[in-house]
């Protein structure tokens, strides 16, 4: 139980285009999901908190107009990287809070974004 | 979150116990010690957590010192698949992980055949 999926697992896009990444909690409902970013040989950095039915809250230094987050249902949050640039190339990971299991965070497998 | 300190890397022979230390000397009374690991190019995986008592599950054991200023994660019989970066994180118990997590640099554990 407590499985989180992400789609796609890998994506390559051209500079200037937008890319949408989906995060789904498969067997539990998650009112809160988180988005992290990880650059090569670095640790995960929290980007934003996604709350179902309300606006996301972003960490300092993360542009909300560039990284659009939508949490329209209790099992799905999406991250859209708008006008992507090569410096946005990174490993994007989501996690979901499982309220049935003491609000433990369960992580998705990650999405590798490469912007050419 | 309270800061944690971990060695950057460790080696362990396959089949032996891997003991990963973590220092969290500024931990508060309501903060739990959590351990996650991240295998290369995958999302982090929850391992175990505890408050002050030692804990054991099917993956590992967690030993927390009496003063709670440090802890040790023990993988009893390490396999090659245990090679990963291990993160020790201190989390205020507002329902466990109710906030986004702050990951340090972790310990890169390498299991040698």
Plain-language structure description:
The complex is a heterodimer of chains A (116) and B (113). With 116 residues, chain A is an all-beta fold. Helices cover 0% and strands 53% of the residues of chain A. In chain B, 0% of the residues lie in helices and 46% in strands. Chain B has a 5-stranded mixed beta sheet with strand order 1-9-8-3-4, with no helix packed on it. In chain B, a hairpin with a 5-residue loop joins strand 6 (61-64) and strand 7 (70-75). The model of chain B has no long low-confidence stretch (mean pLDDT 92). The A-B interface holds A 4, 6, 32, 34, 36, 43-46, 49, 59, 91, 93, 95, 97, 99, 102-110, 112 and B 36, 38, 41-46, 87, 94-106.
Summarize the structure.
The complex is a heterodimer of chains A (116) and B (113). By secondary structure, chain A is mostly beta strands.
Helix share of residues of chain B?
A: under 10%
Rg of chain B, rounded, reads 13 Å
Gross morphology of chain A? globular
Query: How would you characterize the largest beta sheet of chain B?
Result: 5 strands, mixed
> Helix and strand succession of chain B?
EEEEEEEEE
Radius of gyration of chain A: 13 Å
Strand arrangement in the largest pleated sheet of chain B: 1-9-8-3-4
Distance between the termini of chain A: 37 Å
Q: Assign the structural class of chain A, choosing from mainly alpha, mainly beta, alpha/beta, alpha+beta, or little secondary structure.
A: mainly beta
- On the 0-100 scale, what is the average pLDDT of chain A? 93
Ends apart, CA distance between termini of chain B: 36 Å
> If interface size is counted as residues with C-beta under 8 Å from the partner's C-beta, which chains form the largest one?
A-B, 26 and 22 residues
Low-confidence stretches of chain A: none
The best one-word shape of chain B is globular
Question: Strand portion of chain A, in percent?
Answer: over 45%
């Amino acid at each position: 139980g407590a499985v989180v999926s992400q789609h796609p697992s890998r994506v390559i896009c051209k500079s200037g285009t937008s890319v949408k990444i989906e995060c789904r909690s498969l067997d539990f409902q998650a009112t809160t999901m988180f988005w992290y970013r990880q650059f090569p040989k670095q640790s995960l950095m929290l980007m934003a908190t996604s709350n179902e039915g309300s606006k996301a809250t972003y960490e300092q230094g993360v542009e909300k107009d560039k990284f659009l987050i939508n949490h329209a249902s209790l099992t799905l949050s999406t991250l859209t990287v708008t006008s992507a640039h090569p410096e946005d190339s990174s490993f994007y990971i989501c996690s979901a809070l499982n309220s049935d299991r003491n609000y433990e965070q369960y992580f998705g497998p990650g999405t590798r974004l490469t912007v050419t | 979150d309270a800061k944690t300190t971990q060695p950057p890397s460790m080696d362990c022979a396959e089949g032996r116990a891997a003991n990963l230390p973590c220092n969290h000397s500024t931990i508060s009374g309501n903060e739990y010690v959590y351990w996650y690991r991240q295998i290369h190019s995958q999302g982090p995986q929850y391992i175990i957590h505890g408050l002050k008592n030692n804990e054991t599950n099917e993956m590992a054991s967690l030993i927390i010192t009496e003063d709670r200023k440090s802890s040790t994660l023990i993988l009893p019989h390490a396999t090659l698949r245990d090679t990963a970066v291990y993160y020790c994180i201190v989390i205020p118990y507002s329902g466990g992980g109710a906030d986004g997590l702050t990951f340090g640099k972790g310990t890169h554990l390498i299991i040698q055949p």
